[in-house]
Design brief:
By secondary structure, the protein is an alpha/beta fold. The protein has one domain: Rossmann fold (3-Layer(aba) Sandwich). 39% of the residues lie in helices and 19% in strands. Strands 1-2-4-3-5-6-7-8 form an 8-stranded mixed sheet, sandwiched between helices. α2 (84-101) crosses α3. 49% of the residues are buried.
Length: 286
């Protein structure tokens, strides 16, 4: 049985400014929740990453899947920080403010790609607030090569089109054929955002070539004593599986789960496996 997804706008105050989140949620509200953090990319939103997962798991958790600041129908600051590193620092602060506004005492974090970076930033900043952390194809590992797919993502607005977006998302998956309808649907949904001026502005701020990036050293990762599960597609063409090996080696209580015949979209390519991993992890069976 799937749960009904509701969406609302929640305003938080960060660095003296009010920022609005578009928040998608399922499940029964309480003092504890699972916060699903989507990755970057043209037109990315909380639902385009997590719609099936939060619908499936709403019977078990209070599931929260916001559009990140600078994405979708959340706020797009006019003077956003330049570079993924500084912009993600703002995003993480805003997420922590959201958690406080919602009155949560404990939040488990599930971070996909850029969302993994946000999960680590949140955990470093407020370790007592964070429960368990699942990093899925996470960015932020140093010395990783820039893949053709990631280069395509960063430079998408040099020639934005539905065809280019479909080509990009095809690189996210191991085998396009069984997911062709899904990719076509996501392309159609995302193009409505891609064509908005505020979305383009936020993308260009995030991927400003002169802006700073943020990598996590082994020394700072060693301070995170939470249970962490690193999940990665073996055939990921966006972020190499070695990134998750770095996190699994550096985080004191981390485990690594590699999924064969899987690319960068673990939760979309292998949703049942992903859901079972998450359930077992949060319940303490993994």
């Amino acid at each position: 049985m799937t749960s009904t997804i509701t969406s609302s706008d929640v305003t938080v105050r960060v660095r003296g400014d009010e920022l609005s989140f578009r928040l998608h949620e399922t499940g029964e509200r309480g003092p504890e929740a699972v916060l699903f953090l989507h990755g970057s990319g043209p037109g990315a939103t909380g639902l385009s990453n997590w719609e099936r997962i939060i619908a499936d798991l709403g019977h078990r958790f209070w599931c929260l899947a916001p559009d990140q600041i600078g994405f979708g129908d959340s706020a797009h600051p006019l003077d956003a920080p330049r570079g993924m590193g500084p912009f993600n620092e703002l995003r993480a602060e805003a997420l922590l403010a959201l958690v406080d506004v919602l009155g949560l005492e404990k939040v488990h974090l599930v971070g996909n790609s850029m969302g993994g970076q946000l999960a680590i930033l949140m955990t470093l900043a407020r370790p007592d607030l964070v429960g368990k952390v699942l990093l899925m194809g996470s960015g932020g590992a140093p010395d990783m090569p820039v893949s053709p797919g990631l280069k395509h993502l960063r430079e998408f607005y040099a020639s934005p089109s539905a065809e280019s977006l479909k080509g990009l998302l095809s690189e996210f998956v191991y085998d396009l054929e069984p997911l062709r309808d899904t990719v076509d649907r996501v392309v159609a949904e995302r193009m409505a955002y891609v064509n908005r001026d505020d979305v383009r502005r936020s993308h260009e701020a995030s991927f400003d070539p002169n802006g700073a990036r943020r990598f996590f050293t082994r020394e700072e990762l060693a301070t995170i004593t939470h249970d962490v599960l690193c999940v990665h597609g073996r055939d990921d063409r966006i972020i190499p599986v070695d990134a998750s090996r770095y996190f699994a080696d550096s985080l004191p209580k981390a485990n690594l789960y590699v999924i064969g015949q899987c690319g960068h979209w673990t939760q979309i390519e292998h949703p049942e496996t992903f859901e079972n991993l998450l359930l077992g992890f949060v319940d303490g069976q993994i």
